[in-house]
Amino acid sequence: MPLTSVPVEEFTTPDPVTASERMTIDELQRLMERHGIRHLPVVRGDAVVGVLSDRDVRLLYGLSAAEKLQVRAADIMSPAPLTVSAATPLDEVAFAMSDQKVGSVIVNDEDGRFLGIFTAIDALNALVEIIRRGRAAASRPG
Questions:
Q1: Are strands 114-119 and 39-44 parallel, antiparallel or unpaired?
Q2: How many Å apart are CA 44 and CA 19, to the nearest integer?
Q3: CATH no. for residue 112?
Q4: Is the distance from CB of 77 to CB of 50 less than 8 angstroms?
Q5: pLDDT in tens for each of the 142 residues of the chain?
Q6: Which residues contact 139 (CB under 8 A, 6 or more apart)?
Q7: Which of 103, 91, 97, 102 is nearest to 130 (CA)?
Q8: Which residues contact 22 (CB under 8 A, 6 or more apart)?
Q9: Number of structural domains in the chain
Q10: Which domain does 103 fall in, by range?
Q11: Distance CA 22, CA 5 (A)
């Protein structure tokens, strides 16, 4: 399958771990550490209202315990994250991420419902798999 015809959905992390707008800095940090993730979609009901990165959370480590309790995910999330449809070609998504200097995009299904998240790590995994597919196809006889 040519690179331009690979839909982002093929490499999207489905049903990712999410955060609520009301979560504290410590709760966000524990959630990310427990699941070994660096990006968290922030949801309200079924809708993604923002995204957080581990860097967003780390920037606030120096706050006192009392100050940390006052900061919520909604206060530090990036509102209106980059969003694409599941059928968007992988190269278009990677270009948009690079162009906008973001580490993740929200992926919605054809009806606009939250499907998953596509991160820079997912992009690297896609690159490796596509290169390996190309090598395997090139090494097959005839």
A1: unpaired
A2: 9
A3: 3.10.580.10
A4: yes
A5: 454 489 999 999 999 999 999 999 999 999 999 999 999 999 999 899 999 999 999 999 889 989 999 999 999 999 989 999 999 999 999 999 999 999 999 999 999 999 999 999 999 999 999 888 888 888 887 6
A6: none
A7: 91
A8: 72, 73, 74
A9: 1
A10: 3-139
A11: 39
